[in-house]
Amino acid sequence: MGRHYRFAVVDSDKSKSYPSNFICMLPSQISVDQKKNNVFSKMFGDQCEEQAKTLLTHALVSENDSDVKNEIERRLKLLDPKTVNQIKCSSCGKLFQPRRIKRFKRNYCQDCMNKSYGNRG
Length: 121
Known about the structure:
The chain is α+β, with helices and mostly antiparallel strands and about 120 residues long. The protein has 5 helices and 4 strands, in the order βαβαααββα. The longest helix is centred in the middle third of the chain and has 15 residues, at about 50-60.
């Protein structure tokens, strides 16, 4: 059974107890884009991504529950910029950026595609 975790951003300088120190919910994906603006982005502006990383990193250090730690690590990975995904060619084994064509079951690099299929691929 999957669990969903929601993280609240609180400011302990504002108050020591929960309802008074509540600021906003931490979204699972941070976007500075105006179309997907949320309260967190409005609150922290251009610094929202760095602020989210800082908050999650501090929470990871202080958290004891392994499930919550896994969720924090998952969210930190979502904030990291995507690396270029590379796969091995099914024929020669060379690494290349995937551009899978639906009619082929295997992944072929451009060189192997040209050798095997010519202009048909």
